[in-house]
Structure formats: structure tokens, C-alpha cells
Amino acid sequence: MKRTTQSIRVLGVRGFLAVVAALCSIAVAQAVPAPLGPGGFVFPPPLGVNPTGTLLASTTAPFLSATLNGTLISRVYSGDATSPLAGLTFTYQIILSPSSPNAVSQLAVSRFGSFLTDVSYYGLETTINPTNISPSFISRSSEGGGVGDVMQFHFGPPGATESLFPGNTSSLLIVQTSAPNFQATTASIIDGVAVPNIASLAPLTIPEPSTVVLGVAGLVGFAIARRKK
């Protein structure tokens, strides 16, 4: 009987450790960002980890309209050890004022071009922090030719619905990229009507070779025309 009791205790400890190991493996699996190419979407977005590395730049941009009131915080990091793409990592976070007339359904950030991107978010809605709102899905535009310029973070189901309400803060929205450089860009925050031209950060896009050729040809033609005069 004593041996049986000891066996049950051992099995209990082993079972507990097995459960802990399983939970850890699930957490690790969820911490893997999801690739997102032009024209694609990720549903549901994976829970990631807080980026590491060197903070290169940060913007804190208030926005105010007849329908929305809050702040967008954008940051860019280099040397992010959590990124599989070895480029810059960009993060975005919306702080929606309690006095904002409406809720937010989407954040759209431009200038991701043809770079590789992985997406995730960091920070969960909990009983301790019930106002930390994670995105319901993440999508990327498609302009053709492998270009997906606009990254879109959605709050709430597709359609005219929102889940980021006044007084809420979004989770940290993470985009890991293959981009080596960054630039100032603009974002839009949407509640059915967009609040455009909010200062933000994004990859520095490189013009397509055809665009460069056309630009050079135009300059050459202009120079020839001037010489003829």
C-alpha cells in the first residue's frame, strides 16, 4: 500500500511536470511570429515577445478629430534577436483617450513595399489590465508586383465593428521586417471614417528598377531638350 501511494505521488509529480512542459511548449509556439505577404492576412495573430535590440527612433503622435482622440506611439529597433528576418523591427501602439467620441476599428501604416514581414503582438487583455486590447486579425495590401505597401491592424470582426474603445490601449503591434533602413511615414486610424496623416515610422522603400530607369530617361530627355535650345 505504501509503494502504491509513493507511485501515485511520483505519477502526480510527473503529471504536473508534463502539464507544465506542455504549457511551456504552447507558449513558445505562440511566440513565433507569422509571415505576412502582400495581399495576405493572419487570423488570429500570434502572441509574440517584446522586441529586443537598439531603439533607433520613436514618435509619439497625438491625433484629434470629430470622432477620435488619442495617441499613436511608433518605434523602430535594430538588432532584434527575436526576429528571424535580420532586419528592422517596428512597433505600434494606440492609446485611445477616455474622452474619444468613438472606438477604433483599424490602424493602417504605409510604406512596407516589397519587404518580407512577420507579424505578432505583445500584451494580453487580463483581469489585471482589461483595457489592453489585442488585434483580431492583421492584413496587408497588394499593389501588384510583390508589393504590399499598407499594414492593417484590425480590432473587432470584419465589417463596421470595433473592440478598441475609449480608454483602451492596444497591445504592442509588432512588425519584423527584412528592411535595413527606416523612414518617417504616415498612418491612419479608422472608426468608419479615417483620421489620416498621423506621424509614424516604416521601412525605407527602394524605388523599383523600372521607376529608376524612367526617372533617369526623363532627366536625360530634359537635358537634351535644354541643349537644343
**Quaternary class:** single chain
Remind me, CATH topology of the largest domain? Immunoglobulin-like
Coarse shape: globular
Number of domains: 2
Task: Give the end-to-end Cα distance, rounded to a whole number of Å.
Answer: 109 Å
The CATH architecture classification of the largest domain is Sandwich
Strand order of the largest sheet: 1-7-12-5-4-3
Order of helices and strands: HEEEEEEEEEEEEEEH
Strand content: 25-35%
Q: Would you tell me the structural class of the helices and strands?
A: alpha+beta
Instruction: Report Rg.
Output: 23 Å
Write down how many β-strands occur, each being a DSSP E stretch of 2 or more residues: 14
- The number of helices is 2
**What's the main sheet like?**
6 strands, antiparallel
pLDDT averaged residue by residue: 81
Helix content: 10-25%
**Which runs of at least 5 residues are low in confidence (pLDDT < 50)?**
2-11, 13-30, 210-228
Q: Under the CATH scheme, which class of the largest domain? A: Mainly Beta
